[in-house]
């Protein structure tokens, strides 16, 4: 259950929809209740103000019987045309002076039985039901059963009590009555429920539409993933030409493009593996064939005795080349597998350069090359594996010697790296044959030898620069080359500098 991404997405989306609508519904329900209650209270207040004006007119004309009838008809009119159930006018003793609807018979029996009937007048039974409104000038709002008056109805009621203050001709003011506007809260809730019912219908309709849209969206979202799953199975079977055709600008499109790039990288690695095996086979076969041929020629007498030494020297050189190839391959394999660990120490890079030049002095002198060494400071200390960095220097200087014409020049420099603080950049430059720009990225690959270099480096196997790059990468540093055909090449690499005061 819920194993597929499609089913998980559907469940998550449905839960999100249900949660969102639930929160929205609850928020709407309670806020709507407050809003409707507030609007109802405002309506009662407005009605109460109107009745207060009419009551003032009645008081001033109370000597006329018509005025009492007039006021009663007005109260009945408000009851018929508004949501107000009852309108009472009460005196300071709690007696109901006016009641609308007019006849108390029309009053709910469950309410009327809780009133006190005395001397032909109904009176509120509890002082708490009227003493508040007569003790101040502000309206009083009561909700609930109104101190037991409405307990038998089973409803909760809203009672707005507005004091009626009369000012006589002498300017004396007194609260002589109170206007009660009464309506059940159920009527308020009815309005809320009606609105909420429409909301529920809208939720159901929108929910169904949302689920349909989510279904379509989930299918569109998972379809490319299924394509990638199928492609992965095809690729696993060895078919590396498989590609995913998904041209979208979203994350799925990015994943598809990354997937295709991965397949391309795997294909390139496979081609490199095959090329590596072919190159290794060739590089091993060539010296072994030479060694075997010359030895057989010496043994069967094909090569005359006076040339034995010459051909044995060739055999020795091929054996040395073969040994160097094997050692380089082993070292490169160890580097790439992480078996060789860098031993980081502080050392003087300038002194290491001097030592490397001295070790190559014989081949430098053989080609009559001028070596210029420029140091920004006499002593520059760096952090790294001194043996590994010495190997880097010897390889770079050796390459510079091989590809520089006799009488040429090699320049080795150390300087502060301007792009990054606390780094030293070491450069090895020559004025030799140079390289095309198209070759600069390939020279770091194993067994790579340009056509121009093949005539210059007959004994090389094309592993030196691959080893150099691995060593520098292990140090977490940068290495790059600048070259121009016919003008020479310059190799650069960086190292972290260690200042003398910090070392001490």
- The CATH class of the largest domain turns out to be Alpha Beta
Please state the second-level CATH architecture of the largest domain.
Answer: 2-Layer Sandwich
CATH superfamily of the largest domain: PAS domain
- Helical proportion? 40-55%
Write the CATH fold name of the largest domain: Beta-Lactamase
Please outline what is shown here.
The protein is of the alpha+beta class.
Summarize the topology.
Layout: H1 5-60, H2 65-81, E1 86-90, E2 96-100, H3 109-112, E3 116-118, E4 121-123, H4 131-134, E5 140-144, E6 157-167, E7 173-184, H5 185-236, H6 251-299, H7 308-337, E8 345-348, H8 349-359, H9 361-366, E9 370-375, E10 381-384, H10 386-402, E11 409-416, E12 423-430, H11 451-456, H12 464-474, E13 479-484, E14 488-497, H13 500-503
Parallel strand pairs: 9-11
Antiparallel strand pairs: 1-2, 1-7, 3-4, 5-6, 6-7, 8-10, 10-14, 11-12, 12-14, 13-14
Helix pairs in contact: 1-2, 1-5, 5-6, 6-7, 7-12, 8-10, 10-12
